[in-house]
Write a structure and sequence with these properties.
single chain; alpha+beta; Purple Acid Phosphatase, chain A, domain 2; Jelly Rolls; seven-stranded antiparallel beta sheet; six-stranded mixed beta sheet; 5 helices; 29 strands; 13% helix
Length: 453
Amino acid sequence: MSANTIPSLRPNGPGHQFVLYGDSCSGVPGALHEKTFAAVNAVLRRLEPPPEFILFPGDEVIGLTADPKALRAQWRHWFEHEMGWLDRRQTPLWHTTGNHTTYDEMSEQVFREVLQLPENGPPGQEGLSYWVRCGDLLLVFVHTLWTGLGGEGHVETEWLEATLKKHSDAGHKIVLGHHPVFPINGFSGAYQREIGLDYAKRFWDILVDADVLAYVCSHILAFDVQVHRGVLQLCTAGAGTAHRMPEGVEYLHCIQAALDADSFRYQVLDTDGAVRERLQWPFKPADPESWQNLSPGKHLAVFTGPMNSERAIELRITGLMPETAHPPAQTLFSAFNPDAIAPLWLGLRGPRQTLTLILGRDPGRSPHYWFGPDLAAGQSLDVDIALHAGMGPGGMLYRMHGDSRWTSFDGASATGLERLIWPAQWSVGHGQGGAADRAFIGSGLQVQIAATG
């Protein structure tokens, strides 16, 4: 293996190793995105071993032209020159539609003609939506802007449900589409930035019911991972489009992944070939012997230090909610240093007693907020929290008692716990200011905490 080679993650035993990247918006000789796309491809070509297949969730070419000849010319340049290095017979390249490539009926027809994808999709979407079976892995590609339903943000769901049921024996299922279902980095807007409101809940219910591993998307020019009811939403839109959402935080990238019976693992590579982010899912739970019991009051931290990408903090919180809703903030757990505002606060806020995490990483700057479920007055409080530094803003997770599936808190930040240094003191049931500071007014509060990584 040469010094220039990038080692690929490999499955542990039978499985698959592959690459995901999207949104190059290229296809025009000499244009800006040709250069940026080439920089990402140069990294992909250093992988050893090379991927078994490549998944590209849309916007290969800049498109958005009314001239079908010009659109075909872009596709021709993309395949013959920009991707001419790839032997697609040896390494299949699977695509989804996108807003730059299938924006009207003409462009949908060009997409069909040029890509020649399987025609096993729903009526009217042959060559646009389709599925591929690779042994124990099912890949389903959906068209999230079908003109037959109304265009951008509109997606068919009956065929998706039927296809997943038909392949219920598949050990792993991944669904791919261009548009996210859940907002990324605070960029939100149904039917433009995400799948429309008329489809989103039904779409995600189908994925959850079918035990899908991940929904892979692009469109928002970022890398992002979050989880909702146990299903990952993985956004990769760094294949070359030069703009970022937001600039200065996101970066051009490709994802190399490995999948086996035990886990899904990935590494996110930038244009220097450096691993910027990585994850193993499901993440390794804390050692049962490492849990610490924390009663209400202040405590010296049993661990401190930076949150590296391998580190996760787990909390188990039990008690009884107040008899009536209490809108002022109520602390469940807080981590702080003396004489400084707590960089991490977890508790309840507002008349619906919304589970809320506040992260204040930079002195003098406003904190960032993440929101979980509303918790009813007079009910038992029984929730697990996981804080995973390797998942960026999607790494604030919760699950209610009896549910094994994690869900990311809702937030509008582009970063998460990766820069947090765990403080030296903790408090349970009240803030850092003492017993009267944002006190929990329910009863029986108990917190357990453990760390991995």
